[in-house]
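Quick one before lunch.
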Amino acid sequence: MRLKFTKMHGAGNDFVVLDGVRQQISLTTEQLRLLADRHFGVGCDQILLVEKAHDASADFRYRIFNADGGEVEQCGNGARCFVRFVHDQKLTNKAEIVVETHNGLIRPRLEADGRVVVNMGAPVFDAARIPFSGGTIEVMQPLVVADQTLMVSIVSMGNPHAVQVVDDVERAAVEVLGPLIEHHASFPKRVNAGFMQIMDRQHIRLRVYERGSGETLSCGTGACAAVVSGIRRGLLDSPVSVATHGGNLSIAWGGEETPVLMTGPAISVFSGEINL
Ligand SMILES: N[C@@H](CCC[C@H](N)C(=O)O)C(=O)O
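Model of the LBFN2T5F complex:
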């Protein structure tokens, strides 16, 4: 099968984006892994598949696959690239798009300056919806990992996150603790692990060890989860600038049931074709 793709990134979190509106696309787990492979394929953290909406109130359906081939519910940086992609490919000219995801509708908007603002919906703290099997979700939760008790904040931004505050994000044991948190028995669907350093009440540094992809240069939902957790811990005030290894994101949240708004870049790198 010959497949057209576009390589994109949002603050260094990179994607292979596929037009499933004009191409008939059905990929096996092995084909998804090959696309994501940085040596034998195109290389990316996630594969994004744009399809026709099933829901009559939506403009498109947006599917997300991690580098390990697993389909997941949400991807924040990907949502911004999705908007840039459907505009560049002339699949729509609407500035605000209603997008159907595995986890309900999101509403990204393309601004005149090219940045994309995404209404990510309200954060979820219900253990059953994370899912988290370790009891009721508190603002901070003890999680025993490799004989250490970590204090994590657990939140779903459509996908599951466990965020901890660290003194120095560059020295945090992301590569060691990340996979152990991802596969912790209390998270039946695994979890994304965030490591946040508070710089001041409106600035953080963040690294995220992503479920199914490993550490990425940035994670949009991870940034939302970190800011929500920091505000709930009383350490941050909205809006918060999130510095990642791949660039900056701005996250705003009014608290409680209000939606989280994420702003950041969405860049097309190149387009090509691959034989799978
Ligand atoms: N990079 C993403 C998140 C992608 C999905 C995540 N790895 C998961 O498994 O939930 C983002 O920008 O949000």
